[in-house]
Each structure stands twice: as structure tokens, then as C-alpha cells.
Design brief:
TPR repeats: 171-204
Subcellular location: Cell envelope
Largest sheet: 2 strands, antiparallel
Helix content: 55-70%
Number of helices: 13
Shape: globular
Main location: other
Strand order of the largest sheet: 1-2
InterPro entries: C-type_cytochrome_biogenesis, Cyt_c_biogenesis_CcmI, TPR-like_helical_dom_sf, TPR_CcmH_CycH, TPR_rpt
Radius of gyration: 21 Å
Distance between the termini: 68 Å
Domain Cytochrome c-type biogenesis protein H TPR: 151-278
Number of domains: 2
């Protein structure tokens, strides 16, 4: 059975994402007494990602009503909570590459917060399925249900890190750790986690290569020359249509003054995006900028 504190953590973090409360604030405006409640609807009716969030909130409300009416027991209630969380995260309208060429704005603020939920749900599933050893399950179960979301996140991180000390070959969970640390702003630790994943067999995964390149460039004031660009090229060798890698490749080309190559990468990226999407608009702006001012 999934440990109750981990289920609570997952749902609490999703609630945080719904209201855009900073992840490590230490309290959750939607959670009281270990249960996640619904709050005011702050979603955008025209945003597909927000539509998924509204559906999720309605499902959570209906589920709580079923529990309160005695039609489902607490164990089944927590299991369904976790299933709803995983369903929300699996929706295709959620951005897959939050570091791709998009500006600020509410949708990408949500995407950044959701990024931490993916590894969190992964860790909860890991414990639930027993994929790890008994020590991992036992340490997760010791977390106190009255802990704040920030405290539960930190405790879960410590659990995962302890597991990786015992099983350093577990490349999938190095990726989980790296993505979580990235979302928490712990760049250097995230880079170390990604390097460990690459050492242990993930060096042929374009998503990891591109994310690692992006994070590495960010730690160098955005400079892609050198290792970040080599990682991007490797990602595109494996998947020529990888969106984040195409964006980074264009940026790297522009950094070294090769506007023609930048254009080639960004035009390919543009062809992969929905024509009316905000992302496509951003790319078209970049392509127009390559043409220079028109007099």
C-alpha cells in the first residue's frame, strides 16, 4: 500500500501548482489536517492545460464527497487520489519541455511547478509498487502526516538520495532526482544527478541530454558553447525532431554568429508546433529578428 504521507504530498503539491504558491513556502493554502481541499477557480477557460486542472479539481471534490458519504474506504480514497494525480500529469497538453522557447506567463509558471510533480509522483509510485527495497518503503512510511509540504519534499528527497547511495546504478532514479532538484533550484546538485544518470546508461536518451545541456548552459550564464552544444548535437543525432534540442541548437548557432544554421533549426522546430500556439508565435518572432530591421 502507498504510504499515506507520500500520497498527501503528491496531492498537496498539485494543489500548490493550482494556486501557484511557491513550492517551498512551507504551508499549503488548500490543505488542512492532511487533506487537500479545493480553492477558488483561478484557471484560464481558454487554456487546455487549465481545463485539465479544472477537471482534476472537480474529480477531487467528487471523490471527497464519496468518502464522506461512506461509499469508499480511506485506503481506496488515497489510491484514487494518486491515480488522479498521475492522470493529470500524463495529459498531453502539459508542456513537455518547460525550458523550450517560450516567454514568461502563467501557463509556463504552472509548467515549472508541475515539473517537480513528475518526479514526486514517480517516487510515490516507486514506493507503492515496491520497486525499491524495503528500506526505501520503511523510511517513506516514517514521514509524519502533519509535516508541511516543504518538509515532506525534503524528507522524500533524503529518502531517494539514500536509496541512490546504496544503488548508484539506478539510472532512472538519478533522472528523477535531477528533475526534482532542478525544480527546486538546486542546479549544481541536479547537474551531478544528471551526470550520474548519463554514466549509468542514460547517455542515449535525447530528453536527458537536452535537459542536461540546458541546465549546464544556464549555470554558465546561458552560454552553450562547448559541452552544452555537444550534448545538444548528440540529442539531435538520436532524435532530429526533439523540440528542446532544436531550440538550443538554434540558440547555440546564433551564439557563434551562424544565423543560417539557427534559422534551419528554428524553422524545423516551427514546423513541429501547432500553428496558432504561443510557442509558434515566439519562434516566428525569433525568425523575423534574424532578418534584421526592415527599412
Amino acid at each position: 500500500m502507498m504510504a499515506f504521507p507520500l500520497t498527501t504530498m503528491v496531492l498537496c503539491l498539485i494543489a500548490i501548482a493550482l494556486l501557484l504558491i511557491p513550492l517551498l513556502r512551507g504551508d499549503c493554502a488548500l490543505c488542512r489536517d492532511g487533506q487537500c481541499q479545493t480553492g477558488p477557480d483561478t484557471t484560464d477557460p481558454d487554456d487546455p492545460a487549465d481545463a485539465n486542472l479544472r477537471i482534476y479539481r472537480q474529480q477531487v471534490t467528487e471523490l471527497a464527497a464519496e468518502r464522506d458519504a461512506g461509499r469508499i474506504d480511506p485506503t481506496r480514497y488515497r489510491e484514487i487520489q494518486a491515480e488522479l494525480a498521475r492522470d493529470l500529469l500524463s495529459q498531453p497538453s502539459a508542456p513537455a519541455e518547460p525550458a523550450a522557447p517560450v516567454g514568461g506567463g502563467r501557463r509556463w509558471a504552472v509548467a515549472g511547478l508541475l515539473a517537480v510533480l513528475v518526479p514526486t509522483v514517480g517516487l510515490a509510485t516507486y514506493v507503492h509498487t515496491g520497486a525499491g527495497n524495503e528500506g526505501l518503503q520503511a523510511s517513506a512510511a516514517r514521514a509524519h502526516p502533519d509535516q508541511s509540504p516543504a518538509e515532506v519534499v525534503q524528507a522524500s528527497l533524503a529518502t531517494l538520495q539514500a536509496h541512490l547511495e546504496r544503488h548508484p546504478e539506478d539510472s532512472d532514479n538519478w533522472v528523477l532526482l535531477g528533475r526534482t532538484l532542478t525544480a527546486l533550484g538546486k542546479t549544481e546538485q541536479a547537474l551531478e544527478s544528471y551526470r550520474a544518470a548519463l554514466r549509468h546508461g542514460q547517455d542515449n536518451h535525447p530528453e536527458l541530454l537536452a535537459r542536461y545541456a540546458d541546465l549546464l548552459a544556464g549555470s554558465r550564464d546561458g552560454r552553450l558553447r562547448g559541452d552544452p552544444e555537444r550534448l545538444v548535437r548528440r540529442a539531435l543525432d538520436i532524435d532530429p525532431d526533439h523540440r528542446l534540442a532544436l531550440w538550443l541548437a538554434g540558440s547555440a548557432a546564433l551564439e557563434r554568429g551562424d544565423a543560417a544554421v539557427a534559422r534551419r533549426h528554428w524553422e524545423r522546430l516551427l514546423a513541429l508546433l501547432p500553428a496558432e500556439s504561443d510557442d509558434a508565435g515566439k519562434i516566428r518572432e525569433k525568425l523575423r529578428a534574424l532578418d534584421g530591421p526592415r527599412g
